[in-house]
Write a structure and sequence with these properties.
By secondary structure, the chain is of the alpha/beta class. The chain has two domains: 8-127 and 293-344, NAD(P)-binding Rossmann-like Domain (Rossmann fold, 3-Layer(aba) Sandwich), CATH 3.40.50; 129-287 and 351-375, 2-Layer Sandwich (Dihydrodipicolinate Reductase, domain 2). It is built from ten helices and 17 strands. The strands form three sheets. It has a nine-stranded mixed β-sheet, covered by helices on one side. Strand 1, helix 1 and strand 2 (31-37) form a beta-alpha-beta unit. The longest helix has 19 residues, at 345-363. It is globular and about 60 Å long. The two termini are 27 Å apart.
Amino acid sequence: MGSTPRKVRTAIVGLGFGAEFIPIHQRHPHAELVAICQRSRDKLDELGKAHGVERRYESYADLLKDKEIDAVHINSPIPDHAAMSIQALEAGKHVMCTVPMATSVDDCRTIVELSAKTGLKYMMAETVVYAREFLFIKQLANAGELGQIQFVQASHQQDMDGWPNYWPGLPPMHYATHCVGPCLALERKDALEVSCFGSGRIREELVGKYGSPFAIESAHMKLKDSDVVARVIRSLFDTARQYRESFDVYGSKQSFEWQLCEGEEPVLHTAKRPEPEIPAHVTVPDFAHLLPEPIRCFTTGGVYDADEHQHLSFTQGGGHGGSHPHLVHEFVTALVEGRDPYPNARQSANWTCTGLLAHESAMAGGVIKKLPEWSFSS
């Protein structure tokens, strides 16, 4: 696209969680935030005024008719992800959508096929694979410091009691990409097959929502073209646990274990040392140097810009391990360079379908479920 490519003209859809991305899109050197979209007019106008965004849509259908928009960043509720992504691709827009990709295997396939047919890019905005801890592990692995990767595991545990709408009783593995993603992203592998067991039982009033009885679902994944097996653990209700997204990697030379509780540091284990010296706490950097200077501040929570009289970040304190600016940068840069973002449509489908099929496996007593071939990236 030349040395001075035209900026990617983006629109943000959904301004709850999505509001945190407004200043990142605005300050990215290769992006131009054209519009925002929100059903609530009051909130739409409040955020539009605060951030100087003049083009505001209450109707998603109207936004998709806007020919000046190249790409949409979707932050809607989970049940809307697939339909809104499909509508955007059909309207000629590139898509970045928050997780998961969809709530059915069929919808995942539709998005994969549409992306391939249209040549438009799709990226699932999986935060964990751009979190500072994952980037640190990836750096160690790429440098050979972990040695041979022997096993990986991840967890996503959260108490969702009191959350409204579709959340009560949601099957744990229907929202599993935060733990599936890093297991597959470390060595850029696809899941080949999955087996999952359910454990415990949630309250009967929750079971009735989706017919899913399990308090915890734990799965093993076989990775394609790899001798590594991964384990993932997911819980949403009636399980006592502080919120945690974690990723552990066990290698022949070094192993990394995510911090057990918030406020602690992760542990790096080094082989062939005296036993007391094997583990050591490590401080993980923010990896802001990988980003353009104007958006580096968002890896640690952003700053207040006295000249523009606005906060440049909101409540996430750097956004899921500082991942938010990395997600925007990957998506925008991929569009500028004409390449697939990571994860692309097939990879996003593989990660999402792994969770969906894991729940099917749990409901069937742990039977092995094979991932569809159309979800393989190679």
